[in-house]
Design goal:
Blueprint: H1 5-14, E1 21-25, E2 38-39, E3 49-50, E4 54-57, H2 59-62, E5 71-79, E6 93-97, E7 109-112, E8 116-118, E9 133-136, E10 145-146, E11 157-159, H3 167-175, E12 180-184, E13 188-194, E14 198-199, E15 210-211, H4 213-224, E16 228-235, H5 239-246, E17 254-258, H6 268-276, E18 278-282, E19 286-287, E20 293-297, E21 300-305, H7 309-325, E22 331-336, E23 347-355, E24 358-360, H8 370-375, E25 378-382, E26 393-398
Parallel strand pairs: 5-6, 13-16, 13-17, 14-15, 17-21, 19-23, 22-24
Antiparallel strand pairs: 1-12, 2-11, 3-10, 4-6, 4-7, 5-9, 8-9, 18-20, 20-21, 22-26, 23-24, 23-25, 25-26
Helix pairs in contact: 1-7, 4-7
The structure holds ligand LQZAQKY5 and molybdate ion.
Residues 287-290, 306, 308, 311, 367 line the site of molybdate ion.
């Protein structure tokens, strides 16, 4: 029954339903999963335009321009973003242009204001509109022209179904011309913490009690993962109170619990699933978080996280979130600044701090030391039977 981390992830994902599609305003799509491919409805840029503030000219007229021998061009007009120049740029002519403004006909290159010297003009009366001629200190460059459709063209499929909508992707969807997006509905996750010693934040704490940090931490992580949280609160350690609390999970796609899954006499979440429910696995070959359990209760998939604060959040990070969102855990290789201990038959996820491009073990690794998880910015993965020396390359998950 002891599964690997990858197996645990797959088994949880396999119990989740296929989520229906709904349409939401694009501003509400952050964190959702795109349910259909998205085509560009428009091109971006929508016209060939300037990337700089300067003048638009014909490159051929300006090839000899230098600070010593500037090229003189006649200014025949102006092109502003949203207010294009209506005419044509002829030989020896140019148009003042601004970033994002359409390139006038005839012009094919840009020279930025930093490389221009305005010609002195005798006329500085009230009708004065600026000099008539400009001197280019270097050639105008076609590289500073942004071609129409250079980012994407109308009709092109730009985003694929299944993509998770990050902030840049939501912005891209708007640029593509979409005001509403087809997305998967949110997964409904019921959340319950258990334990006689666990109390609500703000209440006076008696010796032996602990504030319910897991529920708040897990709820926050579920929210960040794009889930709808059904808060079941907290249940004391008794089979009856657990069953009563779980009865409130109607409509949920999955129930997540904290605590009561290890070896103790009062670990009733474990008993409930093993003795009266269904068990897919109990225990994962990992630390922290080994006692995690997956099963079902009256048709509802139940994932029991261990109560230890670090264990519950680490298991969420490496098993629950990837399974719920379908997004794989992203890891990268870094050099270890310190040794990291290996375990004979478990994958270890040690808290690490990345500093100066290296990752080190700088704090206590006990599963009850929540502070070290808050101080860490990475989890260092040490495979079963492995071990890491300072200087080795290690796989790291960013927190
Ligand atoms: N004899 C053994 N004992 C334990 C084993 C083992 O293999 N043999 N496994 C240990 C491991 S590993 C873990 S992890 C814990 C998991 O235990 P439970 O899931 O049964 O959790 P509890 O016993 O209910 O609580 C453990 C710990 O966490 C605190 N806690 C619980 N809920 C919360 C909460 N909502 N917020 C903050 N802190 C919470 C609780 O007070 C305990 O200190 O078991 C080991 N034991
Ligand atoms: O495996 Mo437990 O999660 O260390 O305390």
């Amino acid at each position: 029954m002891h599964v690997s981390v990858a197996e645990a992830r797959e088994m949880l994902a396999a119990l989740l339903p296929e989520l229906e599609t709904e349409t939401v305003p694009v501003a509400q799509a952050l964190g959702r999963t795109l349910a259909a491919d998205l085509e560009a409805l428009v091109s971006h840029p929508s016209a060939t335009e300037s990337a700089l503030d300067g003048i638009a000219a014909r490159e051929a007229d300006t090839l000899t321009a230098s600070a010593e021998a500037p090229v003189r061009l006649k200014i025949v007009g102006e092109s502003r973003a949203g207010m294009p120049f209506g005419g044509r740029v002829g030989a020896g002519e140019c148009v003042r242009i601004y970033t994002g403004a359409p390139l006038p006909e005839g012009a094919d290159a840009i020279c930025p204001v930093e490389q221009l010297a305005d010609e002195e003009s005798a006329d500085d009366g009230p009708e004065y509109v600026g000099p008539e001629y400009v001197h280019l200190l270097r050639p105008a460059s076609p590289a500073d022209v942004r071609p129409e459709g250079g980012d994407f063209r109308a009709g092109e499929t730009v985003m694929r179904a299944g993509l998770r909508l990050s902030a840049p992707r939501v912005a891209l969807a708007v640029a593509l011309g979409h005001a509403k997006l087809p997305v998967r509905r949110k997964l409904r996750v019921a959340l319950l913490s258990t334990g006689d010693e666990v109390i609500e934040p703000g209440l006076p704490l008696q010796a032996g009690q602990v504030y319910d940090s897991n529920r708040v931490g897990l709820s926050a992580m579920l929210g960040e993962s794009g889930c709808e949280v059904i808060e079941l609160g907290h249940a004391p350690d008794s089979p009856a109170s657990l069953q009563a609390a779980i009865a409130g999970a109607g409509g949920a796609d999955v129930l997540l619990t904290s605590g009561g899954v290890s070896m103790g006499k009062y670990d009733f979440m474990r008993d409930l699933l093993i003795e009266r429910g269904r068990v897919s696995f109990w225990k994962v070959r990992m630390r922290p978080g080994g006692p995690a359990i997956l099963g079902g209760w009256n048709g509802l998939p139940v994932f029991g996280l261990p109560g230890n604060p670090v264990s519950s959040l680490v298991v969420f990070h490496v098993i629950v979130r990837p399974a719920l969102t379908g997004q794989p855990v992203q890891s990268l290789k870094l050099r270890a600044a310190t040794p990291f201990r290996g375990l004979k038959d478990k994958t270890a996820f040690w808290r690490g701090v990345i500093k100066d491009g290296e990752v080190g073990d700088y704090g206590p690794q006990g599963s009850g030391i929540l502070r070290s998880l808050s101080d860490a910015n990475a989890l260092v993965i040490v495979p079963e039977g492995g071990g890491v020396q300072a200087g080795d390359a290690v796989d790291v998950v960013l927190l």
